[in-house]
Amino acid sequence: MGATLTFRSPVGRALTVAIGAAGVLLVGYAMVLDGPLALWQTGPTALLALALVWALFWEPQVEVSDGGITVVNILRTAHVPWPEFTAAETRWSLEIRAGDLTVTAWAVPASSGTGARLAARRRGRSGDSASGSGAEAAALAIAERRAALAEAGHLRGARRGAVPPQVTWNLVPVVILTTTAALALASWLTTGLL
After folding, report:
1. What are the DSSP calls for the chain, one per residue?
2. Is the distance from CB of 62 to CB of 108 less than 8 angstroms?
3. What is the DSSP code (8-state) at residue 112?
4. Beta-carbon neighbour count of residue 88 at 10 Å?
5. What are the extents of the domains in the chain?
6. pTM for this model (two decimals)
7. How far is the C-alpha of 72 from the C-alpha of 110, rounded, in Å?
8. Based on C-alpha coordinates, what's the Rg of the chain?
9. Under DSSP, is residue 194 helix (H, G, I), strand (E, B) or coil?
10. pLDDT digits (tens, 9 = 90+) for 23-50
11. Which residues fall within 8 angstroms of residue 73, CB to CB, at 6 or more apart?
């Protein structure tokens, strides 16, 4: 019925790229000064910093599709099918409610007062009600998608509990974070940095 909409922090993506570039430059500079040993002394720490920024700011997102709402946080992903969805709130960040389950989206914080005013101006100029990347834009997109699905009759007869929300662990970030932390710790212990 509609395209999948993805909401994530645009600042987080730029921050991840900047941290990655800075890490490569710092490790390269250390290698020029101290030789190949500097790769073991600085590389794992730079890799750990990049892995942390990636897990915190690159991966998290909220997807709104015809099948429901998927919230990808740092360590866990929650999928809420439309029949289970009860509310979306935007106090500090986007919160999705499905019965007793409340999922807070790390990727889409609520806009500041200035951000909300700028987004309102952009919407006024473009006429697009769901533009933006903050919690308010995501909540509006959720409300519009749910209304469109209900109006088209896709939610008629849907029973609560037939397809419950699913919450799963994000294994890739867990493995990457633990591996890079172990490498950094080994580097610190073997080079006397601790």
Report:
1. --PPEEE--HHHHHHHHHHHHHHHHHHHHHHHHH-THHHHHHHHHHHHHHHHHIIIIIS-EEEEETTEEEEE-SSEEEEEEGGG--EEE-SSEEEEEETTEEEEEEEEEPPPHHHHHHHHHHHHHH--TT-SSSHHHHHHHHHHHHHHHHHTTTTTTPPTTSS--EEEE-HHHHHHHHHHHHHHHHHHHHHT--
2. yes
3. P
4. 23
5. 9-59+171-194, 61-169
6. 0.80
7. 17
8. 21
9. coil
10. 999 999 999 999 988 899 999 999 999 9
11. 60, 103, 104, 105, 106, 107, 170
What are the tokens at 141?
């997109």
Is 147 a residue whose pLDDT tops 90? Answer: yes
- Neighbouring-strand partners of residue 169: 76
Residue 159 one-letter amino acid: R
- Integer Cα distance of 194 and 112 in angstroms: 40
User: Phi/psi zone of residue 150: left (φ > 0), alpha (ψ -120 to 50 degrees), beta?
Assistant: alpha
Q: Indicate the residue type of 79.
A: H
Sign of the dihedral defined by the CA atoms of residues 132, 138, 135, 127, in that order: positive
| Placement of tokens 């909401």 in the chain | 7
Centroid of chain to Cα 105 = 7
In this predicted model, what pLDDT tens digit does every residue of 58-98 receive, in sequence order? 999 999 999 999 999 999 999 999 999 999 999 888 999 99
